[in-house]
């Protein structure tokens, strides 16, 4: 099975052939982000699928934040363009956890670690991060953990 980066290149080629300008622009931006990350640091390296997914999630979040900012400034045309790009990026990301699923994972990790009270936040976040990687944003996870620990402590 080809890596995610190679599949993204294939999707880019298909989008170019279909003359889908928004998808072409979005995939080019995503692949540029991947290429920049690969050459950042002391030595060039290939990113694995998990790292590519992380970059796609970051790009999708940036698009959402930009759309919100444009909307607040009354630039609805630009906001809708940013949301269209976000939707394209989200199609390549894993399905996000629902609030109920996330709450169940948080409760499970709190029970496993024996964490109580807000001081255990770091311990719980460290244990939960690998389980929800790519399926829930960090801020959302932190809020759920904070709420659960406040009720337990």
Describe this structure in words.
With 153 residues, the chain is an all-alpha fold. The chain folds into 2 domains: 4-90, Hypothetical Protein Yqey, Chain: A, domain1; 99-152, Arc Repressor Mutant, subunit A (Orthogonal Bundle), CATH 1.10.10. It is 75% helix and 0% strand. It is built from 7 helices and no strands. It has helices at residues 4-17, 21-39, 49-72, 76-90, 99-113, 121-132, 138-152. Helix 2 (21-39) crosses helix 4 (76-90) and helix 5 crosses helix 6 (121-132). The model has no long low-confidence stretch (mean pLDDT 89).
Q: Per CATH, which architecture of the largest domain?
A: Orthogonal Bundle
Largest sheet: none
| Tally of contiguous helical segments | 7
What's the CATH H-level homologous superfamily of the largest domain? Uncharacterised protein YqeY/AIM41, N-terminal domain
CATH topology of the largest domain: Hypothetical Protein Yqey, Chain: A, domain1
What class would the helix/strand composition place it in? Answer: mainly alpha
- What is the string of SSEs from the N terminus onward? HHHHHHH
Distance between the termini: 47 Å
* DSSP strand content: under 5%
Helix coverage percent: over 70%
Give the class-level CATH name of the largest domain.
Answer: Mainly Alpha
Q: Low-confidence segments, ≥5 residues, pLDDT <50? A: none
- Computed over alpha carbons, the radius of gyration is 18 Å
Counting DSSP E segments of at least 2 residues, the number of strands comes to 0
């Amino acid at each position: 099975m080809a890596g995610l980066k190679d599949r993204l290149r294939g999707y880019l080629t298909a989008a170019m052939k279909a003359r889908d300008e928004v998808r072409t622009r979005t995939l080019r931006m995503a692949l540029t982000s991947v290429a920049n990350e690969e050459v950042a640091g002391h030595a060039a390296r290939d990113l694995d699928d998990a790292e590519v997914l992380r970059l796609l999630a970051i790009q999708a979040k940036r698009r959402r934040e930009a759309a919100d900012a444009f909307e607040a400034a009354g630039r609805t045309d630009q906001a809708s363009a940013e949301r269209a790009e976000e939707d394209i990026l989200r199609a390549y990301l894993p399905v996000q956890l629902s609030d109920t699923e996330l709450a169940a994972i948080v409760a499970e990790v709190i029970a496993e670690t024996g964490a109580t009270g807000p001081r255990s936040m770091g311990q719980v976040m460290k244990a939960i991060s690998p389980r929800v990687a790519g399926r829930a944003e960090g801020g959302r996870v932190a809020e759920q953990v904070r709420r659960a620990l406040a009720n337990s402590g």
